[in-house]
Amino acid sequence: MEPPVIHTLESESQVADALAKYVAGLSAKFINANGSFSVVLSGSTLIYTIRKLLEPPYISSINWSKWFIFFLDERVVPLNHPDSNYKLAYDGFLSKVPIPKSNIFPMKENLSPEEASKEYEQRLKQLVANKTLKLSPTTGFAKFNLILSGMGPDGHVASLFTWHFQRFEKKKWVTFITDSPKPPPSRITFTFPLINSADEIAMVVTGEDVIDAVKVVFGKHADDYFPLPAQKVSPEARLTWFLDKLATSKL
Ligand SMILES: O=C1O[C@H](COP(=O)(O)O)[C@@H](O)[C@H](O)[C@H]1O
Fold first, then answer.
1. Residue 209 CB: number of other CB atoms within 10 A?
2. Which Enzyme Commission numbers does its entry carry (predicted)?
3. For residue 149, which atom of ligand 1 is closest to its CA?
């Protein structure tokens, strides 16, 4: 991996501008090179922060028909439930862009957390088999072009939390959790080997809530103790941090 790129912008709005430019640039690059662009969305604040992709010049210049959408983690609730990451992404983003419905891969409903995680992993493997997704020759896990991730105030990414064993998973592509410290408790989540097989990961982190976690992640002795999940993010090509001044105010 190249050294991480760190953008510290004055405001959340500037983060949203920079993020839209970055995503649009990668969309053009991957579509030119491979004919498609696989994007993994997280939930919570990320969907709001990608709002500028819905505005000119991006809304009409991006080749949305070539996008494939996946979910970094999902809460095990119906897809129309207010806690669903799919619903959040659909209402705030996916319903406003012409990505073909068949290119969007939400979690299957009405399954237990374990069944839902296995089903999603199986679906990803089928998409590798039919060449919709690439495989990382280095790790043997699916290789997404871009993962857009937030970070919680406790340093969690996806639904991988500091004191939960799922963060150490080495074999599974997708796992599950039934005691998430952040509600709702039941979730499915990409594992680190799958996350870190991506080409590009953007960590999009803004606001006051994350000040302490940002201080730990970028602290002087960041590697000297039990690392936060966010410190284990390490994609194959490039990690880019988008931070605002508020988030970095203790650095
Ligand atoms: O619960 C979740 O939290 C993380 C972090 O969200 P943020 O808004 O605090 O950055 C999010 O990435 C994940 O998708 C979501 O399920």
1. 16
2. 3.1.1.31
3. 12
Q: Quick one: tokens of 75?
A: 């809460």
Q: How many angstroms from the chain centroid is the CA of residue 35? A: 21
ω into 184 cis (within 30 of 0): yes
> Among 12, 46, 49, 244, which residue has the most ligand 1 atoms within 8 Å of its CB, making it the best to mutate?
46
Q: What is the pLDDT of residues 205-248, one digit of tens each?
A: 999 999 999 999 998 665 556 899 999 999 999 999 999 999 99
All domains in the chain, ordered by first residue: 5-244 (3.40.50.1360)
Instruction: Please state the pTM of the whole predicted model.
Output: 0.97
Ligand 1 atom at minimum distance from 75 CA: 16
Taking CA 154 as the corner, what is the angle to CA 151 and CA 159, rounded to the nearest 5 degrees? 60
Ligand 1: centre distance to CA 36 (Å): 26
| Phi and psi angles of residue 69, each rounded to the nearest 5 degrees, phi first | -115, 130
Asked if residue 180 has its Cβ within 6 Å of ligand 1, the reply is no
Q: Which candidate, 60, 86, 54, places its Cα nearest to that of 71?
A: 86
The DSSP string of 89-153 is HHHHTGGGS---GGGB-PPPSSS-HHHHHHHHHHHHHHHHHTTSSEE-TTTSSEE-SEEEE---T
